[in-house]
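Lab channel / #folding
Pinned by the channel admin:
"Please post every new chain as: sequence first, then the structure tokens as a reply. Keep commentary short and put observations after the output so the thread stays searchable."

First post following the new format, from NK:
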Amino acid sequence: MQAANSTVSRPEPDTDRLNAFLGRMVGELGAIATGALVVLGDRLGLYKAMANGEKLSSGELARRTGTTERYVREWLSAQAAAGYVDYDADQNLFHLNPEQTCVFADENNPASMAGAFEVLSSFWLDEPKIAEAFRTGRGVGWHDHSKCLFRGTERFFRPGYNANLVSSWLPALEGVVEKLQRGVTVADVGCGHGTSTLVMARAFPNSRFIGFDSHAASIDCAREAAEDMGLAGNTDFQLADAKSFKGRFDLVAFFDCLHDMGDPVGVAQHVRASLAADGTWMVVEPFANDQLRDNLNPVGRIYYSGSTMICTPCSLSQEVGLALGAQAGELRLRQVITAGGFTRMRRAAETPFNLVLEARP
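Reply from TO:
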């Protein structure tokens, strides 16, 4: 019996739709190419040298940054073409407008994005490892990524923590600010370079904050930052993962890391056992709706990409490997948290980038 022809004819593309899609690809390629130049300008201090808004020639910017004019001229031209710096054609001078300054030259501004570009550098550097993980099904641990991921992550999340943590997220939790003002013990699990820990420690000097992380180099950075900020007195940083940290705490905080855990239910059980009877678990996670169709937007695009390259491989490298992903959504997170023994959970706050969940025993 002759086998049926399995060849499926390919539909012809609509010319107008194809041209529109190609036009979009030109923009996408420009963004990707310019991203590398953002990292370059950030590393060389080019943006910071333009932070006062003064109009500069390529020669003057090169002089201020100890770089070569011909390279700087080409970099500035690319930045102007991208709209990342402004160009005065009459004077042949370049400058950062106030909005560009917030994004590229002011690390303390809530709109700062330079760290995000550094995170994205790790996507390209670590792509061969992720490609191999796709083939084998094995994970890629956080520790196995390039160093720019660790630096960039701290810089990416810092503006949001500075803007929201003390002013809105902690006040949204039931009775927590009053406890912190009186003086309690707090665990910041998965603290990375310690930014979230130090933000809280500076705001509540009567409380003690212990940051835990399984990445030794990050713990070293956190300790150094605490010394530099004069916060070593009410902070401590210890090497431990989310199922082995020790102590009894009135508040346990997880910032953008629960979805990275291989066994988040086991982690929730450990947190439950570590909490005081009237303690609180604050879980800050990337913002996501519960259904994929509702996350198909610019923020979801970034988070699904990050989850593919970082978060899902990280979880799959650990025991259980549940792989929640960075877009788990509140419903899935609720299932994990309640499976860990918590009886009360609510969404306490949110931003376009984060969900803040409050869990109680």
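NK: The chain is about 50% helix and 15% strand.
TO: also worth noting, The beta strands are 86-88, 93-95, 185-189, 208-213, 235-239, 249-255, 275-286, 344-350, 354-360.
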